[in-house]
Amino acid sequence: MRRNDRFFPVPPSVLDLVLPDDGRTLTMEALSTEVGRIHCEVFVGDEDPALGVFSEWKDDPSVRRVALSNPYADLAEYESDDGTCMWSEWGGAQRISCPVAAEDHPDLNRLFVRVTIVDRSFEDAAARELLLAYGTAVAASPGCTGRA
């Protein structure tokens, strides 16, 4: 996997914060890349999980509820002032705007992105940076904006 792979449309410098650079091979498994159904995981070496990114539609506007569904993170640590983002050292969740795709989801009309970082050697700033960059990239994608 390249650090600028299309499934991670975030700056390489952000990925460098959360992926080891020790010469081991990085591989990616994308179960889905559709906005609202993104499920992608990155593995280091022989199947050691490094991180996962997700997008999912929910009917509940609570970022806290979505954040607490992250299996590797205690996300009660940090919350943005506007209440749309929560994170900890190993992951986070953010509610993002996706007006085009939301039209196809009248019952589940709130889009959230989540990141989980499995490697405990990374600090909370790295998780926050990845979460915000990934949320921005998904919100700017053709699936959310309608622009190609």
Q: Mind explaining what this structure looks like?
A:
The protein is of the alpha+beta class and 148 residues long. It has one domain. 24% of the residues lie in helices and 30% in strands. It has 5 helices and 7 strands; from the N terminus they run αβββαβββαβαα. It has helices at 12-18, 63-67, 99-102, 124-139, 142-145; strands at 26-32, 39-44, 48-58, 78-79, 85-88, 91-96, 110-117. It has a 7-stranded antiparallel sheet with strand order 1-2-3-7-6-5-4. Helix 1 packs antiparallel against helix 4 (124-139). The protein is globular, with a radius of gyration of 15 Å. Mean pLDDT is 81; it is low at 1-6.
Structural descriptors:
148 residues; alpha+beta; seven-stranded antiparallel beta sheet; disordered N terminus
Largest sheet: 7 strands, antiparallel
Query: How many helical elements?
Result: 5
Give the CA-based shape. Answer: globular
Q: Domain count, please report it.
A: 1
The overall pLDDT average reads 81
User: What portion of residues is helical?
Assistant: 10-25%
Q: Spell out the helices and strands N to C.
A: HEEEHEEEHEHH
The portion of residues forming beta strands comes to 25-35%
- Helix-and-strand structural type: alpha+beta
Low-confidence stretches: 1-6
Q: Give the strand line-up of the largest sheet.
A: 1-2-3-7-6-5-4
